[in-house]
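Field: sequence (string)
Field: structure_tokens (string)

Example rows 1 and 2, in order.
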Amino acid sequence: MGDMVKIYRSKARSGLSEAEVDSLLASSRRNNHALGIGGMLLFGGGCFLQILEGPGPAVERVYRRILGDPRHIDAVLLYNGKGEPRRFVGWAMGFSLLEPFAHIRSVAEFLGHDKAYHPTSFGSDAALRLLLDLRRECRGSDADHATCALAARAPDAAETVLRRTAAS
């Protein structure tokens, strides 16, 4: 089947806590590493955007499990590709909060689209551009625990984002 790439977005469940996001990241990194899957998870504006890439059957299994995860709702598959080069080689699961990077055009566009949450209005090209922009921001991070430096230095931003999500 070859390598597969999936990009999806979803809306965070109301009341999602920082501890739940931390737990999600830890288990994703552990499981993805064991399955040979790479990718990146972004969180902002109460929404997730994620790219998964790796062996087709493994990516399919992980994506199906993600669809059943109660920590988010309204998942929309933006891209489903096969036989493509990996863009997140060695990254079991990169991560970034989006609000600290709102000055980057692709991030601002995503956060702007999320105000009304029209999942199809932010397509696969825009999603991939955003993921690659944030991958550049994370450059130099430990590949196993890639977290964008600005997000890692701004724990108060994470708490503010999660509090805002819980209030919506």
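Row 2 begins here:
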Amino acid sequence: MVEDESEKRPRLSHQHTPQGMALSRYSRKMAGVCGAEKAKSMAPKKSPLVPFIQSLDRGLTIIQMVALSKQPVTLSELAEALEVDRSSAFRLAHTLRRRGFLSCPPGRKDYILGPSMWTLSHQYDWSNMLVRVAHKELKTLANDLNETAHLAVREGKSALFIDSAHANHVIAVAGQTGELVPLYCTAHGKALLADADERELKSQFGQGALTRHTKNTITSLKSLLEECHEIKTRGYATDEGEYAAGMRCIAAPIRLEDGSIVGSIGISAPDSRFLKEQYPSYSRKVLRVAAGIAALLNTSEQSE
């Protein structure tokens, strides 16, 4: 197929991409905060960087716009946000609908996400993707601190260890790949809960007492909420033998560009080897590695 030169355009700088400023403004408009004039700022802006395919960029922008909206998106809203005429917006939306990425609610002409999005999201192994991205950093953390390092994701009320890197110590630590540990009393679990508010904690754990595993286990939602606030402020979580007596752990959340937490990374060691005095130095290294993984996950825009 002959490439249409009119489809080539310079790539946008990050803060002016539809995925960045444009989409965030559109989502606020959908919530009633922004007016029509701000929606117009969603149109791609020219930048003398890397060429890209404008129609593909617009199509992907439509998908993200619809995904961010709490209500079905009309054709007029698509055209206004992209700064194109209704016929151009219709052709783009119709193509996405034809491939199943968009759909129309019964009896309506506006747009919601289609079945292809659901199928792709359920077929893709996101945990495996995180392992591939983070494994080198995980090994670096284990080698730098000479302790066992774990990578975890949230799985219901538990943290699931999806990868680990081990140090050369005679005394091995608990926690192996594939193991589930409680969210509320482990460093990896509490790191995953860092942004949780009281409502979310009550929904997740109920209002009764939490199961005690050791004398140090957090057993009340009030204490857990306070802990979550502290974790969010300082950036990392600790475990003072709360799940396994005699163990000390530290972990930090891994965040996407929008701030959402997709995983946690940290180390575990016997408290005889991991002393409280080492928290400052260990936390700096854990935070640096977590930030490095986040950067790898968020590098969707690279200038050449």
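free_text_note (row 2): Residues 75 and 90 are 7 Å apart (CA to CA).
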